[in-house]
């Protein structure tokens, strides 16, 4: 059974979900995370994120700067954050744990 949310409840649902993702910050209609990882971990993380993002039909921005990887999820063009984008952030956290614990 699928539950329908009105726009207010949906917004609250996404806000609640975001509070569970430590390290992610919201900037308007995007969420962002900076991870301190090495080049090998960055490559492994990027591959894992690509698989999940392709399945969700999303395109996160992933960039490498010095000793950190910056990730942005969301459109940033005035479109609201979606459940899929919050789900992608959660899967990125899973991938991050997998590549740093290996």
Automatic annotation (TrEMBL):
<dbReference type="Pfam" id="PF01329">
    <property type="entry name" value="Pterin_4a"/>
</dbReference>
<comment type="similarity">
    <text>Belongs to the pterin-4-alpha-carbinolamine dehydratase family.</text>
</comment>
<dbReference type="InterPro" id="IPR036428">
    <property type="entry name" value="PCD_sf"/>
</dbReference>
<dbReference type="InterPro" id="IPR001533">
    <property type="entry name" value="Pterin_deHydtase"/>
</dbReference>
<keyword id="KW-0456">Lyase</keyword>
<protein>
    <recommendedName>
        <fullName>Putative pterin-4-alpha-carbinolamine dehydratase</fullName>
        <ecNumber>4.2.1.96</ecNumber>
    </recommendedName>
</protein>
